[in-house]
Write a structure and sequence with these properties.
Mean pLDDT of chain B: 86
Number of strands of chain A: 4
Strand content of chain A: under 5%
Low-confidence stretches of chain A: none
Distance between the termini of chain B: 20 Å
Order of helices and strands of chain B: HHHHHHHEEHHHHHHH
Largest sheet of chain B: 2 strands, antiparallel
Shape of chain B: globular
Strand order of the largest sheet of chain B: 1-2
Oligomer: heterodimer
Strand order of the largest sheet of chain A: 1-4
Shape of chain A: globular
Distance between the termini of chain A: 13 Å
Helix content of chain A: over 70%
CATH architecture of chain B: Orthogonal Bundle
Number of helices of chain B: 14
CATH class of chain B: Mainly Alpha
Structural class of chain A: mainly alpha
CATH topology of chain B: ABC transporter involved in vitamin B12 uptake, BtuC
Number of domains of chain A: 1
CATH class of chain A: Mainly Alpha
Mean pLDDT of chain A: 85
Helix content of chain B: over 70%
CATH topology of chain A: ABC transporter involved in vitamin B12 uptake, BtuC
Number of strands of chain B: 2
Largest interface: A-B, 46 and 51 residues
Low-confidence stretches of chain B: none
């Protein structure tokens, strides 16, 4: 049985890989002069990580069988907080050391947000969807309150480096994202927590009776989700040099779409980091490729949605056959 | 149901909370307790309230629809553009009928994947919402359109009650509340009095026993997502006439706010629970708070945070009450 399930999951990966290669080849053939250039790859590497971090955050909670709708809320609030701290400590003129307290505060608030979600879900037993729907409004709302609804701008150049700089020709956000996704793969496959997370996601009752501390698993999961989301917030603020409470609010559902397309089962218990990576790279290639070919930007949304439906129906058809 | 049982229902609890908040608001600002303000709240409830009825039916059936706003915009924009360009004198009932038909047809897409193939509603509607709004923006139109049919403009000025207020102006109750009331009555009738409605509870509450007693899950779910689509189409038309133009960027992105209002009213995620009374109270609570922060001299940027807190406290209170009733 487990073998069949395992092969099904890898089948999803195989299909995803096929979709990825098809889009890559299609776009390369259709727009070779503009797509296969350093500049276009560089711009993709800058755009991808923000949504990437949010999808990692969303994916971790999906594996537990829950759902985190508050990822963008956390990103917004921590971004605004970091921006305000830097503003308070001198803005553009400040020395580069002020970015340390700002980043720490952002990560800290991300951690707290995750803990609050965990208290509501694991402590009080609220349905994850309702709890995070509430906290999503709350966090975004607090972001608006902190910034009084207006844009916060002007940060030291060291902070802008995070989102715009590069190391050995690779944009820093991309390096951070690759580190994060490898970290996710390591945690899921190689740690006790990862194993317990899959167990909990598959069957909470069974994991409870096999001695897993379910509450602890949930606390770690939601806290990771919060911290990872706050990194997305920092990257976003740093890249556009502005913090505003309504930036990126559409990312939340997109992050879920990426995670599910990447083979993270929303009913819990399965998913791999490599699937997530494939899924986000595919979607980014589509959106950049369409952009380069001057295809209406709305067709991009349509294609993302179609891909999700396609892979679902594909999986379904194969499952029926077997 | 006797009085004691009624006081134990979650709807009664919600009503008490609403009344308590209402009294507090009235003390803070007496203008809150004016006919004009109550009429405003009623009008603001129309869109969310009607959509909430559709969401309720979906939640009762054990599903979740994230695509209804995309469907509403699709129906809204296609119908307004088509009639605005070709037949500007179209009567309102025809427009509404067309929008409901368009919405239902688009809802059929969801039905196909969810009911026919049995795929999870959450993922399907996540996908279709992207597809539907992409189709709308790419092929129907991505610009605001304000040459909407005259009957829509006339509808926006249709007040059924108009009372002179103390300040000398008029307090108006908009006619759309009749439509809201009609949809509530219809949904209540559907869920309580029809075989189909009871089957929706059964399919949502326990799919296995539903299958054992011979309910056709496919047909029931087919209806549920078409119903949601039709409701969304109706709201699309109302939205155009409220705004006096068709803006394809409206509505989409607010799905979760409607779902929040619905879940405060009692249905549990997972299906089988919920009723129209609780749902409309949930909508009332959210609308009342959204509308009155200004009157209470609370800066509007607090709005989202307050709504978030209400959702958290509301759902937590429901859970705690449920637990207490289990242990007692």
């Amino acid at each position: 049985m487990t073998k069949i399930l395992y092969s099904l999951k890898t089948m999803h990966l195989a299909r995803l890989l096929l979709i990825f290669l098809t889009t890559l080849i299609l776009i390369s053939v259709l727009a070779p002069s503009s797509f296969l250039t350093g500049a276009s790859f560089r711009s993709m590497a800058v755009q991808m990580p923000e949504l990437g971090f949010l999808s990692i955050a969303a994916a971790m909670v999906l594996i537990s069988g829950g759902i985190d709708l508050s990822v963008t809320g956390v990103a917004i609030m921590s971004g605004v907080l970091a921006a305000l701290i830097m503003k308070m400590l001198g803005g553009t003129e400040a020395s580069s050391t002020v970015i340390i307290p700002a980043i720490l505060a952002a990560l800290g608030i991300g951690c707290l947000c995750g803990l609050l979600n965990a208290v509501l879900v694991a402590g009080l037993g609220l349905a994850p969807m309702l709890a995070t729907l509430g906290t999503s409004n709350l966090f975004t709302g607090l972001g608006i309150v902190l910034s009084k609804g207006s844009a916060v701008t002007g940060f030291p150049s060291a902070f802008q480096m995070i989102g715009n700089g590069s190391f050995l020709g690779i944009p820093i956000p991309m390096i951070l994202f690759l580190l994060a996704i490898s970290g996710m793969a390591f945690i899921l496959r190689r740690t006790k927590y990862g194993f317990r997370l899959f167990m909990y996601g598959t069957n909470p009752t069974a994991s409870f009776f096999s001695g897993v501390n379910n509450t602890r698993v949930l606390f770690i999961t939601y806290t990771i989700s919060g911290i990872v989301s706050s990194i997305a917030g920092i990257l976003m603020v740093s890249r556009i040099n502005t913090a505003k409470a309504d930036y990126g609010s559409s990312y939340g559902l997109q992050a879920l779409l990426i995670a599910v397309l990447g083979g993270i089962d929303p009913s819990g218990g399965s998913g791999r980091a490599i699937g997530l990576l494939l899924s986000i790279v595919t979607l980014q290639i589509i959106s950049s490729g369409f952009n380069l070919m001057h295809i209406n930007a709305f067709i991009k949304d349509l294609t993302w949605g179609l891909l999700l439906l396609l892979i679902m129906v594909w999986n379904y058809a194969r499952q029926r056959k077997e | 149901m006797n009085l004691k049982q009624i006081t134990k229902t979650s709807e009664f609890f919600l009503l008490t909370v609403i009344l308590a908040i209402f009294v507090v608001f009235c003390f803070v600002n007496p203008a809150f307790f004016s006919l004009g303000n109550l009429f405003d709240i009623a009008k603001s409830m129309v869109e969310t309230g009607i959509l909430a009825m559709g969401c309720l039916v979906v939640l009762v059936s054990g599903g979740l629809d994230l695509s209804f706003m995309a469907v509403a915009v699709f129906a809204m924009h296609s119908v307004s553009l088509f009639f605005g360009r070709n037949y500007n004198g179209a009567p309102l009932p025809l427009l509404i009928l067309c929008a409901i038909v368009v919405g239902t047809l688009v809802g059929l897409i969801n039905s196909f994947f969810i009911a026919k193939l049995g795929l999870p509603s959450f993922i399907v509607t996540l996908g279709t919402s992207n597809v539907i709004s992409g189709l709308c923006l790419a092929f129907i139109g991505s610009k605001q359109y304000n040459k909407i049919p005259a009957s829509m403009l006339a509808f926006s000025k249709w007040n059924i009650i108009s009372v002179e207020n103390a300040a000398g102006g008029k307090s108006n109750l908009h006619g759309s509340v009749i439509i809201l009331a009609a949809v509530i009555v219809l949904t209540t009738f559907l869920l309580r009095k029809t075989m189909l409605g009871r089957s929706i509870y059964c399919v949502g509450g326990n799919p296995v026993s539903a299958a054992r007693v011979g309910l056709n899950r496919t047909k029931i779910l087919l209806f549920v997502y078409c119903f949601m689509g039709g409701i969304a189409g109706l709201v699309g038309i109302l939205h155009v006439s409220f705004q006096r133009m068709s803006n394809p960027y409206d509505l989409v992105g607010n799905e979760l706010n409607v779902i929040a209002a619905v879940v405060i009213g009692g249905p549990r995620v997972g299906g089988g629970y919920g009723n129209t009374a609780g749902t409309i109270l949930g909508v009332l609570l959210i609308t009342m708070i959204n509308n009155s922060l200004v009157m209470l001299r609370i800066p509007t940027f607090w709005q989202k945070a307050v709504v978030g807190m209400i959702i958290i406290i509301g759902t937590a209170a429901q859970i705690l009450r449920y637990r207490r009733s289990q242990t007692a």
